[in-house]
Structures are given as structure tokens and as C-alpha cells.
Amino acid sequence: MEVKKPTSGRRNMLKGAAIAAGALSAPMISRADTVSLRFQSTWPAKDIFHEYANDFAKKVNDMASGRLKIEVLPSGAVVPAFQLLDAVNKGTLDGGHGVLAYHYGKSSALALWGSGPAFGMDPNMVLSWHNYGGGKQLLEEIYKSLNIEVASYVYGPMPTQPLGWFKKPIAKVADLKGLKYRTVGLAVDIFTELGASVNPLPGGEIVPALDRGLIDAAEFNNASSDRILGFPDVVKNCMLQSFHQSGEQFEILFNKAKLNALPAELKSIIEYAVQASSAEMSWKAIDRNSKDYLEMKKQGIKFYKTPDAILKAQLDAWDKVVAKKSLENPFFKKVMDSQMEFAKRAGQWQNDYMVDFKMAYNRYFSKKA
Fold first, then answer.
1. Within a 10 A sphere around the Cβ of 208, how many other Cβ atoms?
2. Is the pLDDT of residue 274 over 70?
3. Tens of pLDDT along 222-268?
4. Fold classification of 32-158+248-286 (topology level)
5. Which of 43, 59, 61, 140 holds its CA 20 to 30 A away from the CA of 332?
6. What b/e sequence results for 121-156 when a residue is b if at least 16 CB atoms lie within 10 Å of its CB, and e otherwise?
7. Cα–Cα dist 312/349, whole Å
8. Considering the entire predicted model, what is its pTM?
9. Any idea where the domains of the chain sit in the sequence?
């Protein structure tokens, strides 16, 4: 039988197969080829938020199999919390973990990813608006207008934040008048409208300021963070439920040039790590927040529901604030209009479809008379 010599095309195909086989048996990329990125969070090292930043980094590092390594530093290691965006933009840091409300000084519109009632959307709905309702494109447009060269990944829908920690429970709107209070983002404007004297301190500075009497009251975020940061050690009353930050998200930032220099597969790993981290953060928050809530009750902390009159006053104040900001900043109005359009549709669906879970919970766990 005659053995045919491979044609030119067939020789190339066999050569390609041999190269592919060699690639499969090749050793892992050496450590010398590892791309290392230096990140900073806007949170103290002990805070659960810094843990979320590390959770994201671990997912990327594990999936990248030595080709990419993200190191996360705590707030203040390189720059103060509120300077994270500038540091990532300039390349002082390769990336970071924070919230958009911290960039409020750049554009008031950026705070709309965290501050205010979001037209009745819960945190997960706000994230849905960002990914599917035009929010992502608007955020990119705002950063471009500010000449900020970063890639932003919004993720991690946070539970509704408490009204805050007070030396005395707040019973009526008038109790907020003249109160030295800490918050951030557009919540600054809400509480200013309600008569408070507001100081937007970063997370690590709040409890020391409360302890020294520099502020009378403060909000940060959730049961786990509040407990870890030491709120129960200096204040014994916490007011639950508020519209000032009822749908906030986290933000993972990358210097755009550093991100664009990565191979496509590493960029994909980052994108999918964001999505996985968003889900894990949501689940972890339920577990940890509920445990820390019970632990603080055991410590003797008294929790009160924020009176409806105060919640309504927040909405009234919000309407005044956004009317003014919409006139001052065209991007603010664009984001508000986009959120409203999405919320009207998604909110109607959710409100009509979702059952009242309190009915079932109360059936099995409410105290019997």
C-alpha cells in the first residue's frame, strides 16, 4: 500500500496539533510572569467590608492560577478613604474597593448609586438597574466627563442601613434639629435639610468622634460593621430602618490602563469574580448581620424602629434635594430619570408578585400573648 506524504495544508494542521499538545503538557506559568496588582479598600482591616474586598481578591487569585495576584490593603495604607478614586485614576493604586457615595465631591450624580430611596427599589433592584437598565453606561459617561480613567464594577447589594446610633432614641423629626450627625453622599443633604449638622467622616473615624463628643450621632452601615467598629461600646441606642441609604452598592475599581493591559481571559476572570463575589457577599451579610444583631441585643443595646413620621420626612427632604441637584447637574437628572423609568416597571412587578414574608415569619416566631 502506498503511503501518501502529507500535503502542505495537512502538514500545517499536524504541526498545529503538535503545538497544542505541547501546550497542554507545558508547566504552569512561572511566578516571574505573575501580574501583581496593588489594591486598597476604603475600610479598616477589621471591618467585614474589608473582608468582602479580600473575598473578591481571593476569587481572582484562585481562578488566575498564578497569572494574576491582587493584594488588598486596608484604608489609609496608601491614601485616605475618600481619595481612593484619584489614586486609582492616577495609577498610585492599581485598584480599590469602596462605594460610589465616597466620590460625591466629584459629581453629585455618583451618590445616586447609594443614597436615597431609589424610587422604592430594594438594593438588588438597584443593581439590576445598573446592569440592565442603563446605569452602567451612565456611570461610564460620568467618569469620562470627569476625565477619570477607571473601570468600575458595581456589585454587592447592601441591606437597608439603620438611621443610626443615638445617645437618646429619636422620637420625632424635631429631635434631629441641631444634632451633630455623621453620614455620607446625598444623605448629607437629606439630614441637612432635616436640620442636622452633618460631618461626612470615613468609617474608621466615626466611633472615636462619637466617644470624644465631636458628634452626637452617626450611621455607618450594618450590624456586623457597627459591632466590629465599636459603636455598642460608646452608644446604646440604635434606630433601625431609613431611606437615606436603602439601596447602596459596593464598587470595585481598576486603573483602566492596567486592566486593558491584561489578556482577555484574565479580564473575564475579573468580571466573573465580581458576579460571584456579589452573590457571596449577599449571603454572607444575611448570616453575619443576623448573628451580630443578636449579639448586640445580648450586650444590652436597645433597638428601635424609626418612626414613620421620620421616614416620611426623609422622603420629603429627598424630593427637595433631588429637585435642586437636577437643576445643578445634568448627569444627576439623567441618572434619576433612568432609575425612575426602571423602578416604575420593576417595582410594580416586585410589589405585585412578592408575598408578605412577615405573615409567615410571625406565624412561627412571634411571641404568643
1. 14
2. yes
3. 999 999 999 999 999 999 999 999 999 999 999 999 999 999 999 99
4. D-Maltodextrin-Binding Protein; domain 2 (3.40.190)
5. 43
6. bbbebbbbbbeebbbeebbeebbeebebbbbbbbbb
7. 23
8. 0.88
9. 32-158+248-286
